[in-house]
Amino acid sequence: MSGESTVAIGLLLPDVLGTYSDAGNATILAQRLRWRGIAAEIRTITVRDVPPTSCAVYLLGGGEDTAQLFAADWLRRHEQLRRTLETSAVTLAVCAGLQILGRSMSDAKGQHYPGLGLLDITTAPGRHRAVGEVVATCAVPGVGSLTGFENHRGVTTLGPGIAPLGRVIAGTGNGTGEGTTRHRGEGVLTERIIGTYLHGPVLARNPALADHILHQATGQLLPDLELPDQAALRQTYLRGPAVSG
Amino acid sequence: MVVQTPGAGPVATVPPGPLPMGWWTRAAVSAGLATAGLSRWLGLGAGSIIGGRVTLALDRQALRHLAAGRRVVLVSGTNGKTTTSHLVAAAVRTAGRVAHNAGGSNMADGAVAALAEARGTEYAVIEVDELHLAAVAEAVDPAVVVLLNLTRDQLDRATEVGAIASAVGKALARHSSTVVVANADDPMVVSAAALASRPIWVAAGASWLGDASSCPRCGQTLTFTEPGWHCACGLGRPTPDWWIEDSKACTADAVLPLDIRLPGQVNRSNAAMALVAACAVGIPADQAASALREVEVVAGRYAVVHRGGQDLRMLLAKNPAGWAGMLSMLSDPRPLLVIINAREADGRDTSWLWDVPFEQFGSRQVVASGERAADLGVRLSYAGLEHRTVADPLAALKALPPGQIDVVANYTAFHQFRRRLGREREVAG
């Protein structure tokens, strides 16, 4: 049941961009609202659906190469959704989802494909696949360290007016420098869009980032949540850059 | 030997007799066996992987030479390889001696070790990791390949599932005399096995289609219409030669019992695939079906371990598809111990836990354990499952009541836990 006060979370194309379990981010956002007494619902939006434009948050996940181009094409065909992402909703885009929102993507043969153009970024394939744990310092105040698992070959270059989500401490992230400095950047951060290469899912590993998204989407101040195992989980991955088992 | 024609599908041709092995291969095999023996003596493990590696390092053609003259069945796919290979081996053993990598070492080195340790057998049943199927098939020229399913597993290691299916398809196309026993309900398997000259299609079911919503051939969205599926590009579910009805495997002119002891629908599917594979190497169908019934424990899985006042039923699930198959086995509201590691053999990325529908587990007592107990614990909280988290699995048992307990672990967690239970018994004498 969807009422006035229910916060809708739109999970975009999990049938195409569901390879890396990023749909978990939707579960996390919805539960963190419910635990604070705010009604929430997840709307799963597949390629067969006409996408609603009423969601407060939209989520895009990672996927395989052909699926990514298919998803980009699908999003371009839904102009109203594009406008919603640009002007009113808050979006979390992971990996392939991040690349799709940029100006263009290119494949190993040098072929260029247009993105949605919501972010001033371009992505080209790197020499090696980046696979492993990432630690980054998040640019969002109060979020602290970001932890996640990256698995991609994309090298993402940010335009001059756009900032990364974080600064890489360990791992690859965007694979490019951050502005004119030599720091390596991870993801992108704009007023409405958070883009990242991190799986895990990223919000399971970084609950403060989840609450930042929820605060932006609802305008509400959210009280702290104590979740069992959360501190231990973060400690597992943040205790040092050499993360191995 | 009388080759009885099974109900449907071709029977694999008999290969020429054993070829003499060169002195260098014999030396390489001896060195491998010696290394394996040393490894066992030192208590380092079963020794099959290190022994196989030594042999392969000395003679890269060792697998080809060791397999020559045997009727080889390769069992591959993402889930069910170990169980199905045990079922096939049980059925084939009714007709002769079988070399089998029973411990689940499923790359080329494991195959070499199994063949080296059981020389001169008429048959070999080899479980093969799907990423290595093309290379192993090239070397052993199999009589039969069983292709169970192809889904996502260990995201950090594997390439995309579609790329695996494509590589397997190309390998199958190169072996025109190989019979391919393939699951008609899995679009990835069909896209690969469609290239085989001699496929036998089994409607074995698919417990999880999370990776199969877009066509493996062209990328469009697949249409699923019970019981079939198809794509606008023409790829679709082939008409099955065999199918499962209740507890029976059926083909156009035969109905065979599948009243196996292994639990769950997923194992009935594995048994059906095993039965068809056994028939394809010439085992009489009735004989094969009764042999399947005898299999109770597979490399420690499904075993019940008595410890203190607890009866631990040992189950292994290592990815979302494996867990989907597990759900039907966990039907009782039994307490549950889940043990999760993230070592190399498990895949380092634990994201997959979020594709397991823990929400459906209902109100049973659950303890989260293993080296990644915290990842699991967080997942369970978001699934609304009350649980306790105890990283050490033996200590975790203390948090559960006496009586029957289901233990589900992923790969290295399962073997670690079994070893620790075994050591405890030795100490207890």
Can you tell me about this structure?
The complex is a heterodimer of chains A (245) and B (429). Helix content of chain A is 25%, strand content 29%. Chain A is built from seven helices and twelve strands. Chain A has helices at residues 24-34, 65-76, 79-87, 96-100, 202-205, 207-218, 230-238, and strands at residues 7-12, 40-45, 57-60, 90-94, 104-106, 112-114, 121-138, 145-158, 166-170, 185-186, 188-189, 193-196. In chain A, helix 1 (24-34) crosses helix 6. The longest helix of chain A has 12 residues, at 65-76. Chain A starts with 6 loop residues before the first strand and ends in a 7-residue tail after the last helix. The model of chain A is unreliable at 241-245 (pLDDT under 50). With 429 residues, chain B is of the alpha/beta class. Chain B has 14 helices and 17 strands. Chain B has helices spanning 23-41, 48-58, 62-67, 81-92, 108-117, 133-140, 161-173, 187-193, 265-280, 285-293, 320-326, 373-382, 393-397, 411-428, and strands at 71-76, 98-100, 123-128, 144-147, 179-183, 198-203, 223-225, 228-230, 242-245, 248-251, 254-257, 304-307, 310-316, 336-339, 366-369, 388-389, 403-409. In chain B, the strands form three sheets. Chain B has a nine-stranded mixed beta sheet with strand order 2-3-1-4-5-6-9-10-11, with helices on both faces. Chain B has a six-stranded mixed beta sheet with strand order 12-13-17-14-15-16. In chain B, helix 7 (161-173) links the parallel strand 4 and strand 5 (179-183). The radius of gyration of chain B is 21 Å and the shape is globular. Chain A binds chain B through residues 15-16, 18-24, 27-28, 31, 47-48, 64-67, 69-70, 131-133, 149, 151, 199-201, 204, 227-230, 232-233, 235-236, 245, and chain B through 152, 155-156, 160-162, 210-211, 213-214, 219-221, 320, 341-343, 348-355, 368, 371-375, 377-379, 381-384, 389.
